[in-house]
Each structure stands twice: as structure tokens, then as C-alpha cells.
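Agenda item 2: flavin mononucleotide complex prediction
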Amino acid sequence: MKIKIGEIEFQNPFILASGPATRTAEMIARAFKLGWAGAVTKTICLNYEMMVDVSPRIAKINGGLKNIELISSRSPENWVEDIRFLKNSYPKSIVIASISAEVNNPGAWQELTLMMQDAGADILELNFSCPHGLPELDMGNTCSDTPYLAGEIINSIKKVSKIPVWAKLSPNVSSIKHLAGVCVKNKADGITAINTVKGFAGVDIETGMPELNVEGLTAYGGISGNIIKPVALKAVSEIAVSVDCPVSAAGGIKNWQDAVEFIMLGASTVQICTEVMHNGYEIINGLQKGIYTFLKKHELNSLTEIKGKSLKYIKPIADLNKQAVAAAVIDHSKCIKCGKCYKACFDAGYQAITDSKNGFLKIDRQKCTGCGLCKAICPVKCIAMKVQDSVVPNLQL
Ligand SMILES: Cc1cc2nc3c(=O)[nH]c(=O)nc-3n(C[C@H](O)[C@H](O)[C@H](O)COP(=O)(O)O)c2cc1C
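Presented output:
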């Protein structure tokens, strides 16, 4: 399960992402003891006294969390002690120091770099991506919004850094691939993708009050958890094919299967935040066991053998085969006759599903264009899409 990135060896691909679970050395130490290969500290800054959090700052949304938490309110000096302690006590565990400063203040980035590397951090992660609270201070997501300045920050850090520098990027930009390219051109040694997606938790329709209600007011925040996984999968795969550097994936990873998906899309390591906030550091046991069993089942020696395996399947729509028209095929032995596919096809499709006398639904091959909607919404997975060359649907119907 070991992963080697340059000179650095991770015992397994699982890293605690920067966040509430990496707030202190004591917490990180507990995670290391349980088997986490590495941890990214809560983001450290020089203007830590400005990081005064509101409460509440975390709310549940469907499929994840919304948060308006700021970065660490602990001083860099405190963190230096923490990192020293962690490296002395757990030399094999990888400590990644997350740092942040203003987009136009290279001196502050350099100062934090020197402090963290002297403390013994293995890697630096530059927080270019916190989407709430920090942009107002010209920090966080502002760096992702201005790729040119992000490049300059890396450039100045690389003048003083002796340890690898990873840039943590935001999905809240028009092209994360372009941004990653600028970072690597300026000699970033790795990319972490993604931070949270900008969002809003919702409104209580009885009162009109916002969810995540801070004394009657709220703010836009960052969405995390499984709901953002598709955004992260796209970001990681796009970056993996376009830049030549290790990618650490974050965003919606809940279990070992999610981790394998990200690795098949080019990630070297995976970072987890929200799932740990729900189920604690102990999830590492299931993650490790799952990967171990998967490697054995597929007779793989290491995860490197599957890294990027699925990237070759992603192409522009224009490159996909338009000649092979698939059509829905219903497995009547599994169908529960709920009628959902009929309704969907009738009102949002091609009116290709019809009722037959014995109560079974039929597909009209002249009308079915193979859109896949019926399969997508079938609650018992009894519909398959099969290419049948002999019949071509009449698209004018
Ligand atoms: C409450 C909370 C606080 C976070 N704080 C930080 C932070 O200080 N620095 C940082 O780089 N990312 C921070 N993150 C982002 C996570 O590291 C991670 O990129 C994101 O949540 C997506 O991963 P997940 O879906 O596993 O949570 C925070 C996320 C949450 C939910």
C-alpha cells in the first residue's frame, strides 16, 4: 500500500485533509497512531489573530456539509512546536504544513515556509482555495482566481524552500487545469484538488431564516462531502492528464472504493475531511483493509499499477461513437412494474416505453434514442442499455 512521491514515502495513500480533524498535534498524533499515513495541518497564517470564528459554522446539507469556518487561529509559533513534536514522535508519518497569506505578500509566504520547514514539515501545502472569509482578506480563493499571482507566490516560495511544495486549488474557477498548469510551470511539486465548492445551505421555509443561522444572519460558505465528489473527480482527472506532477485528491471521499476511483483517475494520494468529521479517525481501518483486499483480488503489487488507468477513456464528445445507438432493454424478471420509467420517458423522453397487455412495459425501438434516462431512474436496476445496430431510431418522432 506504500506510495513513494519523490523522496517521500507514505505508508498508505490516506491523508487527513486540512480541517477540524487536524486542529492540533494531539489530534493528529491520535490519527497517526491509528494508521493514517499523513496529515495536512489546519491552515496556518501570520494574521492568525484575525481568524475569529462565528458559531455555529458547520451545517448539514444533503450529501455533505456546508461550513464557514476560517483557518487556524493558533499562532505559527504554536504550530512549529506541534510539527516538531509530531516529527519526533512519528518519524514515518508525513506532516504536511498548510500555509496561507495574502496574494500580494510573497514575504509572508516565505516567512511561513521557513518556519514550517525548520520545524521539520515534510511537505508544504499552499492554501490557494478557501472560498469563504479569506477572499475578503485577499487570501484563500483569491489566489486561485488570479493564476498569475499564484504562480508568483510559488516562485518566491521555491527560492527558499527545501521541501516539496503542493498547491491546493479551488474548484471555484473557470479552468482548474489552466491554474494547475501555471502552478507547475512555476515549479510546484504537487497539486491538491479540491477545496470546498462555494455554496449556500438553504432556507427554513416556515420562517424564511437561513440554515447555518448566526444570530439571524448567515454567509455563503464551502460545500464538502460526497456531494462534491463528481466535481473533484473531474478536477483531478483533468489535472492528471494535463500536468506532470503528483496529484493529491480531496473532495467527497467516503470509502476505499472512492479512493480507488480517484487513483484510477490519476491521483497518487487521497485526502479526507468530511467523512472523518462524521465517523472519526477509525475509518482508516476499513480504508486500509479495503485497499489491501482489492489489491489481492486483482493480483496487484501496488496501487501504482492502477494509477491513471481510466484516464484514457475520457474524450471530448466529438470523439465518441455516434453510430452505435444503444437502446433500453428491460429485464422483466426483475421489473417491479412501478411505472417510473414509463412516466419519465413519456414526459421527459421520447415516448418510447409503452404498456403491453400483460402489464409488462415494452420499448419501442423506432422511438428509443438510448438516452439512458429510464436506466438512470429505475429503482431496481432492471434496465440495461444495449447497442443493437439493426434498428435506427427516427429522431423526428
Ligand atoms: C469545516 C471545514 C474546515 C476546513 N478547513 C480547511 C483549512 O483550514 N484549510 C484547507 O486547506 N482546507 C480546509 N477544508 C477543506 C478540506 O480540507 C477539503 O479540501 C474539503 O472539505 C473537501 O474534502 P471532503 O469532501 O473530504 O471534506 C475544510 C473543510 C471543512 C469541512
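Discussion summary: The first strand starts at residue 3 and ends at 5.
Owner for follow-up: CH.
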